[in-house]
Amino acid sequence: MRFLQVHLLLGVTSALVIQSVPWKVPCPRQCVCQIKPWYSPRSVYKEAPTVDCNDLLLSRLPDSLPAETQTLRLQSNLISSLDQTELQGLANLTELDLSQNSFTSARHLRITGMPGLLCLHLEENQFRHLPEAAFSGFPGLQELYLNHNQLRNISPGAFTGLDNLLRLHLNSNRLCAVDRRWFHALPHLEVLMIGDNPVEVIQDLNFKPLGSLRSLVLAGMGLRELSEWAFEGLASLESVSFYDNRLTKVPKKALQKVSGLKFLDLNKNPIQLCFNPRLSYVHPQAFQRLSSMESLMLNSNALSALHRQTIRSLPGLQEISLHTNPIRCDCLIRWVGAEDDRPVRFIEPQSTFCSEPPELKARRVKEVSFREMANSCLPLIAPGTFPSHARVRLVKACQGGPSSSLKEEECPGQEQLEKPSICPPVPTAGECHLDTQQSQKQNSAKDCSSVDNASSTSDNFQNIQPQSC
Ligand SMILES: *[C@@H]1O[C@H](CO)[C@@H](O)[C@H](O)[C@H]1NC(C)=O
Ligand SMILES: *[C@@H]1O[C@H](CO)[C@@H](O)[C@H](O)[C@H]1NC(C)=O
């Protein structure tokens, strides 16, 4: 799904299928020769003379390939080396598919000059290492597939000579770090897939040379955080996927450096506040300065709320994915039903449900009315009302219950809760409320509206949700 979206974003019309027609040439034994539709990485369409020799247990290239061959498919064979002489005479070869073969070393790829080749498939081989200038025999290459290999180590200058490369697929390897020096040779790279590698930290300036990059996939990498400067230099970035990582918060500062972002995928991350899934949220200003953002993918997180201000800070937002989150249908998600706001399309609205409050549980978020959500608003806290030195803890108390049932939730280092004030508690469900400890000033009506009027003020407040006692 996410790859599909990346491709759609880049305008690749891969769904367009035109019938293959027979190509009447002497065809190598067991292979199939046809004229087939073909798109270059720049979406240039051709009818390409194609030789298919997939799945034939070949350990070397067939002899006597037709000289007009433009696409040569050797997927799923036993080839472990390739020599320039084997491709001699194929002057118009533009795509070579050697995926699912037995290459173990780039040194066995003895190609000295195939300037016309645009696409090279080497995925699902056994490469462990890429030496310097590993692909210098392919100076015209626009797309290189190295995904699903065993790469642990790539020399700093491995991609030297690939000045024209637009897409690089390095996902599903064993890389432990991303080296900025790889990218110096790739000034025109537009798509980088590097997910499913055990990289735990993206270093500052890691992608700096990639000024043309439009799409970056960092899925499944175990990323826990992202530094402010991680995306420095990515002036053209439009799409980034953090699908299935370990981010506990939105990498706000790093994202602020990429003002042209249109597509952000944060699905499957344990984004939460205070490590308390009941309070999980996205900071209202998390996406500031992302005015081009069109798609926001937040499903399968631990989110219970999304602030209206978050949505307002994304003027270009057209669609959002929120399903598989423990969404609390109250004040903080009321933008869903608010009519004055521009409509934001829900991705999979049929499976986007309220988890709370109990009376709205299992209702579809889209179908809960504004009024119903407002009815379940909880006490609001305004930031900046307490003195700055006060460290405030939130205490839940059961009214009338024994003091031993008091529970505390502390939020170390969370700026939103370090200096809050708290409204006079409004017991909503009748039995629970929030209270503060160590707070000197019980600032009352000045900043805190009653729940009934939260609509006008909710943008300035944090909504704190008590747990049931
Ligand atoms: C290669 O392509 C060019 C331009 O389309 C064509 O003129 C030439 O005949 C082709 N060469 C072969 C060997 O098919
Ligand atoms: C809610 O607040 C707005 C302005 O903040 C005020 O004009 C309005 O009268 C209030 N409504 C209620 C019901 O208190």
UniProtKB/TrEMBL annotation:
Keyword Transmembrane listed: no
Keyword list, A-Z: Leucine-rich repeat, Repeat, Signal
InterPro entries named among the record's database cross-references: Leu-rich_rpt, Leu-rich_rpt_typical-subtyp, LRR_dom_sf
Ranges for region Disordered: 400-469
Signal sequence residues: 1-15
Polar residues bias locations: 435-469
The protein, known as: Leucine-rich repeat neuronal protein 2
Organism (species): Acipenser ruthenus (Sterlet sturgeon)
